Write a sequence for this structure.
C-alpha cells in the first residue's frame, strides 16, 4: 500500500488502518460499557468488523516488511558477488606484483 506524507513524516497506510480500527473498537467498548449504545444485532458486529480490519492492516504492514527484507537479501547477494570479484582481482594483483618484484630483482645486477 501507499505511504502518506504529512508535515515531513511518512506514515504506512497499513498501520493507519490498524490504529484507526483499534480506536473505533476502544470507543465502541467504552460506549457499550457505559450503556450509551443500545444497538440492534447488526451493530453488535462492529467489533468483528474492526477486528478484521486490524488483521488486514497487520497483514499489509507485514507484507511491506517482507518486501523490504527480500530487497535487502537481493542487495546482499549482489554485494557478495562484487566482493568475490574484488577478492579474485586482489589475488591476481598480488600475484602480478610478486612476478614484477622477481623480474625487477633479476634485472638489477
Amino acid at each position: 500500500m501507499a505511504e502518506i506524507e504529512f508535515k515531513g513524516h511518512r506514515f504506512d497506510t497499513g498501520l493507519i488502518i490498524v490504529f484507526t480500527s483499534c480506536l473505533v473498537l476502544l470507543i465502541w467498548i467504552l460506549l457499550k460499557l457505559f450503556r450509551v449504545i443500545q444497538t440492534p444485532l447488526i451493530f453488535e458486529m462492529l467489533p468483528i468488523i474492526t477486528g478484521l480490519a486490524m488483521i488486514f492492516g497487520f497483514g499489509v504492514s507485514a507484507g511491506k516488511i517482507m518486501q523490504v527484507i527480500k530487497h535487502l537479501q537481493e542487495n546482499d547477494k549482489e554485494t557478495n558477488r562484487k566482493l568475490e570479484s574484488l577478492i579474485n582481482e586482489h589475488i591476481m594483483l598480488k600475484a602480478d606484483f610478486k612476478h614484477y618484484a622477481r623480474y625487477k630483482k633479476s634485472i638489477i645486477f
